[in-house]
Structures are given as C-alpha cells and as structure tokens.
C-alpha cells in the first residue's frame, strides 16, 4: 500500500466539537445527499478518538437514513483504536489526502476539520485541488477550524469547481465581538487578517455593524447578531444565507468577497 499523503495531526478531539459544522452540512448538502446514488461521506483526519466520525454519521442520517461515513486517518494506530466503534454505515481506514475509498467510490462529502492548520498557507490550494478532485458530482469539501469545544468555527465550502463560500459560526453567548472569530479562520485566510485584505475588511465591518446593533442586545445576543448580519448585507457584503441560519449564530459569505488578494 502506498504511503498516505499528508502529515499526522495533533489528534485533539472532543465530543460535539464539530456540531456547528455538521448542522450546517446537513442543511447545505441535504438535497444532494437525498438524491445521491452512493451517499458516502469522509471524515478526513478525525484524530486520536473517533467521536467526530460517529457524530457525523448520526447527523447525516437525519437527512439520508442510509448515509455512510468513512473515517480516514494517516496514523494506523488511530485506525486500530477506532475499530471498536465500527458499525453499520461507519468504517475506518488508513489514508490521507488521496482519499483511498474502495471500488473507485467518490464521496458526496469530504470534511477536513482542524487538519490544515499545521500546513503552510502556500500548500492549501494544492490540497484543496486534490480533495475536490475526489468528490462526486455535486459533492462538497468542507475545510475549516474550530476551538477545542466547538464554540467558534470558520469553514470554507469547496465544490468540484472550487471554493464557494465561507461560514462563520459561534455560540453567541461566548462572543464579545465578531472579530473574535478571526483566531479560527482556516489556514487559507488566517494570515490574511491584515489591513488591505478582504477578510480583514469584512471582520472590521462586522465589528462596526455589531456596535451599531448594540441597542438590540437588550433583546438578546441572537437578535443583535441578526441585526448585525442584516447591516452587513445592506452594505453590500454578499451574504448567501437567511435569517433562519443567522438565528443559529451563523453567517455565510461568498468566497470571492473574502479571498486573499491575488488568489
């Protein structure tokens, strides 16, 4: 067997760490999952414990009852440790960015959470290209970063054609200002949070909208967030979702608006 492509991660994982990302995936990819002939998803680099793969299966099966998840890890010891959690629809395998699924299967979803933070920014486009080439038509690569207990999360959604959107998600009670999410930007963006870059302009404008929406704080953090996102949209930022997503502490913006200069 060829050596898996990639570098072993720290492996840090906690139950429910990726619940915000999973919730968004079930919403955004639900229609494609329901019509897929082979509803298989990959949890790439699930870490030292298989909780995220177990939870992903449960959440996808609320949309597609026969969904399947393959947890891939570059560390054989982690694959062996996950085997007791194997069940109907959930398997574990040794692999990396080559996504080695049997019988030439192509996943509807590849989720790579907290995997690329240890890589250099210049390596990210090639990894994205390699992973999206493995997707089924209509499939989605979701790559991003969150904190240890899943309160703050930012991810990029990438289709077979390339990056589409960036989603910011947070437990609103933990937020002082939207730019607190900057520390969880994915590798493609985290070093671009500097003046002159679009993501910095976005977060600066988001903080300004948050301050303007301060009177809504008396109605709760959720109403303040909703008002802030509405102000962003009214000022021209290409927000792609609606208030039902904003209520959950999310906002999704088109990739082109935040992409690094020269990308």
TrEMBL record:
<dbReference type="GO" id="GO:0008168">
    <property type="term" value="F:methyltransferase activity"/>
</dbReference>
<dbReference type="GO" id="GO:0032259">
    <property type="term" value="P:methylation"/>
</dbReference>
<protein>
    <submittedName>
        <fullName>Class I SAM-dependent methyltransferase</fullName>
    </submittedName>
</protein>
<keyword id="KW-0808">Transferase</keyword>
<dbReference type="InterPro" id="IPR029063">
    <property type="entry name" value="SAM-dependent_MTases_sf"/>
</dbReference>
<keyword id="KW-0489">Methyltransferase</keyword>
């Amino acid at each position: 067997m060829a050596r898996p492509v990639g570098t072993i991660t720290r492996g840090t994982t906690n139950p429910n760490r990726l619940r915000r990302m999973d919730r968004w995936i079930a919403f955004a990819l639900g229609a494609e999952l329901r019509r897929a002939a082979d509803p298989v998803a990959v949890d790439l680099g699930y870490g030292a414990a298989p909780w995220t793969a177990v939870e992903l299966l449960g959440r996808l099966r609320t949309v597609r009852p026969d969904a399947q998840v393959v947890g891939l890890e570059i560390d054989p010891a982690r694959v062996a440790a996950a085997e007791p959690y194997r069940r109907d629809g959930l398997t574990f395998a040794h692999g990396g960015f080559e996504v080695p699924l049997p019988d030439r299967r192509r996943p509807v979803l590849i989720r790579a959470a907290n995997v690329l933070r240890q890589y250099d920014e210049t390596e990210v486009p090639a990894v994205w290209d390699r992973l999206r080439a493995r997707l089924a038509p209509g499939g989605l690569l979701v790559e991003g970063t969150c904190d240890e207990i899943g309160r703050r999360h930012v991810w990029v959604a990438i289709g077979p054609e390339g990056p589409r959107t960036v989603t910011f998600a947070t437990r609103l009670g933990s937020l002082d200002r939207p730019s607190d999410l900057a520390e969880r930007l994915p590798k493609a963006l985290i070093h671009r949070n500097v003046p002159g870059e679009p993501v910095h302009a976005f977060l600066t404008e988001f903080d300004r909208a948050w301050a303007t929406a301060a009177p809504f704080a008396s109605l709760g953090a959720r109403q303040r967030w909703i008002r802030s996102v509405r102000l962003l949209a009214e000022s021209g930022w290409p927000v792609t979702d609606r208030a039902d997503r904003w209520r959950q502490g999310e906002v999704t913006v088109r990739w082109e608006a935040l992409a690094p200069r020269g990308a």
